[in-house]
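Bench notes, afternoon.
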Amino acid sequence: MTSQPHERTSHHATFRLRCAERSTPGMDCNYPVKLVVFDFDETISMVTFMAKDTDTPAERRILREINFETPWVEGDRLDKLRQLFQAIRKGQDGRQRALTILTKNSNKNGITGVLQLLSDADLDIYFDAIWIMPAKPGQHSGVYQDGGKWKFFDPPMGKVPQTKADVLFHVANHPKDWFPQMKNRNADAKRLQKLLTNLKMEGVVLVDDQRFNFQSEHHQILRYCKVARYDAEYRCVGLQKDMGGIGAHNDADYETLRRFVEDPWMCKENLQVRCSARALPPDQEKQPVKLVVFDFDETLTLATFMPKDQGCATKIGWTPNDASTPEWTLQDLVDFNFETPFASGSRVRRLQQVFKALIDMSNQCRVLAILTRNDSGAVAVLNLLKAARLDQFFAVIWNMQTRPDLPNGAYQVNGTWSTFVTPVAEVYDHKADVLADVANRPQAWFPQLTKCTHHKGYASGLGSLRPLAPENIVLVDDERANFRTDADRSAARVMRYCKVARYDENYRDCGLLNQMGGLGAHSEADYTTLVNFVEQPWNFPYEPSPGLVTAADEHLSAGHTREVENDDLRIRRPRVRAGMPSWLAMSG
């Protein structure tokens, strides 16, 4: 086996936004979000290359595309950001919020340069103020919007320790010093006065790509969203380190952030599973759970390490002994994917016990399934489950990540697994929509239902899937955005679900891994919570926004450089790469 560190293969979660609400003594958890503060570099932008006064309109368009548009997701990222900012300013419940930017961008033009980039991208109109830190001699460190016009001012930046947590604590306690328009009498002033007078830290959300910005020696940001960072070969500028950007790799970021701002109490910063049942009519409330669907990556696995050998993805029953090149032992494959170093005992054994309990509990004869978005295909997922002897508990595996060379489905009959083509291509690409279709036509998703009705599996659970309703299904997943569709034309929602906790941790020989997960990875209580929830989901009511809220509560030339936050310790070396436009250069 190779002596090199093992490489994680599940990357969907690692590129996503992560939101959390801290639990601290005396915190008012029901206090609504009133102020959302965004970092600029690698949060709103993906990378930041500053504009020059001499740029032509064509160069500015190229600059805007490089700074803001993603090559990894279809659609117009700037348009998605505009929709997000508008949705946060006034939520679906009618609640209004203030939006600002707090940046450490170190460009020579200061806040003027940041405002210019926002204006060129038609993003500036959504913000009430922009603050830049630290204050520079001879330059304004603030600008605010009043009646549609931007006006410069100097917030008390020099009176506050130069950390974002300390600055935002001062903002919460002295909002008029940071929002000069509050002293006026126009509509903007009245809106901000109503929002920000007597503001608490619980009412502030910081969206940032730098983890250390969420706390200081003196204060903590109680509600925050961490934007994913990554390295990538990017457009014409070559390898870029520590890129970022909301929605740069996944559209789920926008919905995750919007929902967090509306219901931050649903994203507690803890390491335990959280189960919820949405409200149902009284005659449906106590409908039993018939089908429990598990995500695979970071839900059953802590992080996924998929063998590189092609046989793993194509041959049912493949083991590391079949690999053409030694890479894994069977035990290492199980340990890295399923066993936890963060809790005592064997996690695989506990999963086996829980799966058996879910199937046999109260003689309900439930069915277990897997709904995943794994790049290696359904057979590869099956072979990892087989390695840990977990496959025996599942009736079917559905993979939403389709490849023409790999089957996207597998099903079990009396211990024998076979592949099939799922109807996932016929459904909108979201787990909530897939499960709605499963409830509507289970025979299309469970080949066992059409092939035979006399085998053991049918008698012990599959037969109960006719009929099947959304409230009969539980989804266990580490991605909150999977519980409600993002399709405009669909109202699909998962009515009963369990959210598996995510975390960042040093893991085995891999170093620091972000966005890890795993049912029971840190807490034995996860297993009991899940079993109790599946048995009686009506005892775990969904927590909506507390209280009723009404509307009345309301490119680049040689001088272009990439800007990073000025307390970032990365080395910056000017360089021009071959193949770049002659007017394009950057600083790393």
